[in-house]
Amino acid sequence: MSIIDAFTKAHAKLSVPVNGLYLPVPQVIESLQRFCRPLVFHNDGYDHDISFSGSCLLFRHRGHNLLLCTRHQLTNAKRSSDQIILVVDGAQGRRVGINPNEVSQGVLDPSSDPAYADLADIMIAEYSPRNPGRDLAPHFLSFDLESARDLRTVDPASVDAIFSIGYPTGDTSYDTTFDDDWQLLGVDVVSRWWKLYFKPATPTVWDAAGTVPLEPASNDDPIPDDPDGMSGAPVFFIHGIKAGQPELGSAGIIVRGNKLGRINMIEAAHIRQALALHLAA
To answer: pLDDT > 70: what percent of the chain?
Structure first.
C-alpha cells in the first residue's frame, strides 16, 4: 500500500477543492486523471488514425483552454504541432479530433547557459472556447497555475503527497480488426495511465541542470519498467492535511526519467513564465 493511500484513508472526511468541487482526498487523483491524457497525433495516410507520444495536461486558465506538455514529445516523434489533436465525442457516437488554434514553445534567453536547455522544453497549445457547436470547457481542468501554490511556496513539512499521472509508452496497445480476407478494418489504440508518488531527491550527476529531481516516495510504490511516455505528465501535490485544510498544488511537469523511477521536473515557476509569454503573444 502506498504512502498516500494509507494516510488518506485516515483522513477521508477531509476534502480538496478540484475543478469547482470539494472531493474527499482519496478521490482527487481519480478526478484529475480525466484531464491528464496522452498527447495525441493525427496520422494522415496510415492504418491507424491516431498515435500517442507521452503525456499532457488539459487545463482551463482565465478563460483559455490550454494543453501543456514538453516540446521533445514532438521532436522525438518527428511530428509537428499541427498534427496534435484533442479527441472528443462527436455526432452518432463517433470521435472527433480537433487541432489547436495556437501553439507556443518555451524559449530561453539566447544568453542563457545551454546546460539549462531542459527548462525551455515546454509547449503550450490553445483551443478556442468558441469552437462551433461544441463546448470544449468540460475537457479542461479549471486550474489557475498562477495562483496555485508550488513547492517553493509551501513549508516542506506540510506536503502530504507529491504525485503524477501519465501514460508510459510500454502500456500502449494497438488492437487491430480484420475481415475474413485479412483486410484491415480498423485499429483501436489504448493507453493505460499510471499514478506515481514521489519525494524530493538529492541532485546527482544524472540530473539535468535547473530541473528538480524526484524519486519514488517508497519502495512499495510500483514504477513503470520504462519511463518513456511520462514526459509531459503533470506533477501535483497535496498539502495541509495535517492542519485540516488540504489543498491541491502544482509542482511542475516531468521532462525526463530513468528506470529506477527517478524523474526530473520542470518546476511550476518556469511553466508560469512560459504561460505568461503565451498569453501575451
So the answer is: 80
Q: How far is CA 46 from CA 83, 104, 186, 188, in A?
A: 13, 27, 11, 13
Half-sphere exposure in the Cβ direction for 54 (13 Å, CA): 26
* Tally of domains within the chain: 1
Q: Count Cβ atoms below 10 Å from residue 20 Cβ, excluding itself.
A: 7
Q: Does the structure show a pLDDT above 80 at 127?
A: yes
Position 240, amino acid: G
Closest CA to 172 of 196, 187, 190, 195: 190
**What is the pairing mode between strands 172-178 and 159-166?**
unpaired
- Which residues constitute the domain of residue 54? 14-280
Confidence check: pLDDT of 178 > 50: no
240: in domain? yes
The DSSP letter of residue 9 is: H
Amino acid identity of residue 258, one-letter, is: N
What values do phi and psi take at 25, rounded to 5? -50, -45
Residue 8 maps to a domain: no
What CATH number is attached to the domain comprising 37?
2.40.10.120
In a domain, 9, yes or no: no
- Mean pLDDT on 223-233: 91
DSSP letter, residue 91: G
Residue 150 lies in a domain: yes
